[in-house]
Amino acid sequence: MAKKTFKPGQKAPRSGQYGIIGPRGGDTGKERTITKNEPLPPTPEKGQRYILNDPTKH
Questions:
Q1: For position 26, what pLDDT does the model report?
Q2: Phi and psi for 22 in degrees, rounded to 5?
Q3: What is d(CA 38, CA 4) in angstroms, rounded to the nearest whole number?
Q4: pLDDT, averaged across the chain
């Protein structure tokens, strides 16, 4: 089952490390730390999305 992806500008459903994936689903190796309910920042390139790699444990 594929993990859910998120668009830049969407509110983060959980706090944690969000990886940036390419337009065809490939991992870019870049991550951003996002707090719950904060909008996801713009990606470096058009068509990229976010995936939750490591949710904060608290």
A1: 92
A2: -75, 175
A3: 17
A4: 93
